[in-house]
Amino acid sequence: MQGIQIFVAHEGHTQYAAEICAMMEESARIRGTGIAKRSPDYLVSKMLEGKAVIALAGEAFVGFCYIETWSHGQYVANSGLIVNPEFRSTGVARNIKAKVFELSRKKYPDAKIFGITTSLPVMKINSELGYKPVPFSELTQDDVFWKGCQSCINFDILTRTERKHCLCTGMLFDPKEKDQQKENKSKWRKFKVYERWLRFKQHVLIRVQETKQKRQEKKEQKRSRAGSGGVLSLRERLRLF
Known about the structure:
The chain has a 7-stranded mixed β-sheet with strand order 1-2-3-4-5-7-6, with helices on both faces. By secondary structure, the protein is α+β, with helices and mostly antiparallel strands. It is about 50% helix and about 20% strand. It has 2 domains: about 5-175, Gcn5-related N-acetyltransferase (GNAT) (Aminopeptidase, 3-Layer(aba) Sandwich), CATH 3.40.630; about 185-240.
């Protein structure tokens, strides 16, 4: 990662659009998997809207990912993740995904973030970010999104199964679930603090009770000695009262 910087893409990065598109297509060809093709103009529009992140090493292109919104902003997809082969195995893909995920949460805090992928490394990164594997029925049902899969070589599988199955795995991050998890953790932490305080109180009360009991036992012993004719000092006699 030394020398690599990740930016929210802007007008100054539009020169990389054609290179990014070519790299996406070549990567899909090598893997033998499908990809929803995007034109350089489309990627340029994402950069101008501030809905993409780009990684550079000086002037050299390193990686890219962009944001798409569906169902009137209810769903957000982090799409088109690509890393220059010369910079793979450096951890940059994870950092790009984290950056675009952060950007998505900032722009669309209430939206569900999803993705479909055949890449095991991407699935692992998504899991680390809080995504869960889900059936396609839990993803956006926006027809425009699914039409984007028409350029994929596996599109016939998707249509034959009525969008229920494909080679891709659907993954979803639901902010409401995440907030609920945080709330539950917060409640649990508060309960644990209360539990520790209760144990402390019980400890103190037990010590006080034990002290009282020992004092009472001593008094009883002294009374017993006095009743049996034992000689008590003035201090001992006073303590009986």
